[in-house]
Every structure is written in C-alpha cells, then in structure tokens.
C-alpha cells in the first residue's frame, strides 16, 4: 500500500453488533496478507485485547491515556501480539466516558504527528456504542467507516441515525470521511427477516455499499474464549471464510478509492 495508513473505524451505536469481533478478525486477515496493521481499542470493555491474547499490567498505558494527558505519546501504548504484522493499542476499562478536554482531533493528531500512519498500512479502530468524545475522535481520525449490523427490524433506523452523524462529521471536521460499507453479521438468508432487512439496507444505501456478510458461526465466539482470531482457531469454518471474503472486498474498495484519488491528482 502506498501513502499513509488507511484508517477504518468500525462502529454502530447499538451494542451487540459484532464491532469487536469484526475489528479483531479483519485486523488478523489483513495482517496475514503481510500488511502491517494497528488495532486500536477505544471501547472501555477492552475485548480486543482478549481477541488477540494481550495481557498487560493494570498501570500499562492505553489509548485512553491520550485523553487525560497532553504529554502522553500514543506510541508508548502499542503492544505486539503473537500474530506477525499485528499490533494493538489496548483500552482502559476504568476510563470514564466524558473524561478529557473535548478535543475531537486529539487522536488524529497523535496518529499523524507520531508517525504511526507511516508505520502501518491499516489502522482499525474499534469504538464504543455510545456517541461521545471517543467516537468523535475516531471519526475525525478516519477516512473510512465500516458499520456491522445484525439484520433485525430495528437495525435500519440505527444505521440511518449513524449515517446522519457521519454526514455531520464529513460536512465539518473531517471532509475525508467516507462510508466504506455495511456488514450484516449473524446472517442467515434463509430467515425472511434477515433477507428483508439486508435488502432494505441495500435499497436505501446502495447495493455497492453492502458487504457479503458474516454467517452465524459459534466458532467466532469460541475463538474469543481461546483468545485468538477465528482464522487461527478454526481455519476452515464459516467465520474464517466469511471474514476472508469481506477482507478481500474491503481491499478491492480501498484499492479503487486510491486509484481514483491518484487519477484525480494527476489530471
């Protein structure tokens, strides 16, 4: 990949939509392709560390130190993992939402000023479900937003509400922000409601915004219990196949976007 890292925010304001599962497994897929990946856990539940088997002492630096000290260097919180090309900046489970000075660009500045955007091809940010300063910092730092959702009848309204937030950010502090895709998870197209919800999302936001989806697979939950990405835990299961496919689709979209941007710059 040429140029600075592509920064992808994985977000949905509703809990239980597979944000962390998606963040961990996509990070692992891209890392397995040989791309240096930095996974940042903004969610105070701290489950990304579980998914990549990182255990740190309680007083270790985390991404949330960035919002409590002007002198903190984000690079100090970077942790290696057992998987080549994959690093993690963990979360602080004790961080109180709303702490900090309200600066929405603190994360973006740290990533760029400390050179982290030059050290990695991809930076994937897992976010909390709440709409607060942490989510705004993630959105102001990113170029791409990935929205995983469970195809239930209330999902459409949640996606629309989030799309309004993205439009507001793209119209203000971060004009580079784009919706990368909508990702249905726990998907079973034999279920009428799942078909109706995913087809409705495609109709409203465009079929080109939809990703192929992640089928229901207990191995995804089991892999977290074993503290590893699903591709390592069970290479031949549906979850591994689906996240590999979604990673390919995302890679193609990012490549097309980069080529379009390069063409515009040369004309």
TrEMBL record:
<dbReference type="InterPro" id="IPR050678">
    <property type="entry name" value="DNA_Partitioning_ATPase"/>
</dbReference>
<dbReference type="Pfam" id="PF13614">
    <property type="entry name" value="AAA_31"/>
</dbReference>
<feature type="domain" description="AAA">
    <location>
        <begin position="6"/>
        <end position="178"/>
    </location>
</feature>
<protein>
    <submittedName>
        <fullName>Chromosome partitioning protein</fullName>
    </submittedName>
</protein>
<dbReference type="InterPro" id="IPR027417">
    <property type="entry name" value="P-loop_NTPase"/>
</dbReference>
<dbReference type="InterPro" id="IPR025669">
    <property type="entry name" value="AAA_dom"/>
</dbReference>
């Amino acid at each position: 990949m040429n140029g600075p890292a592509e920064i992808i925010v994985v977000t949905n304001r509703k809990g239980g939509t597979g944000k962390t599962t998606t963040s961990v497994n996509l990070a692992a897929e891209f890392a397995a392709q040989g791309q240096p990946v930095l996974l940042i856990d903004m969610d105070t539940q701290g489950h990304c560390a579980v998914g990549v088997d990182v255990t740190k002492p309680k007083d270790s630096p985390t991404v949330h130190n960035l919002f409590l000290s002007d002198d903190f260097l984000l690079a100090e919180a970077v942790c290696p993992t057992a998987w080549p090309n994959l690093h993690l900046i963990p979360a602080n489970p004790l961080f109180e939402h709303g702490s900090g000075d309200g600066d929405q660009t603190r994360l973006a500045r740290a990533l760029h000023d400390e050179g982290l955007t030059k050290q990695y091809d991809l930076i994937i940010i897992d976010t909390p479900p709440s709409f607060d300063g942490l989510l705004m910092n993630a959105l102001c730092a990113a170029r791409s937003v990935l929205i995983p959702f469970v195809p239930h009848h209330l999902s459409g309204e949640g996606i629309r509400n989030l799309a309004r937030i993205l439009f507001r950010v793209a119209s203000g502090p971060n004009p580079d922000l784009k919706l990368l895709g909508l990702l249905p998870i726990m998907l079973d197209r034999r279920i009428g409601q799942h078909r109706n919800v995913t087809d409705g999302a495609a109709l409203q936001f465009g079929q080109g915004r939809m990703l192929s989806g992640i089928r229901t697979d207990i191995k995804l939950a089991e892999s977290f219990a074993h503290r590893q990405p699903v591709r390592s835990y069970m290479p031949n299961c549906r979850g591994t196949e689906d996240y590999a496919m979604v990673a390919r689709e995302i890679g193609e979209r990012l490549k097309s976007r980069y080529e379009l941007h390069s063409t515009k710059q040369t004309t």
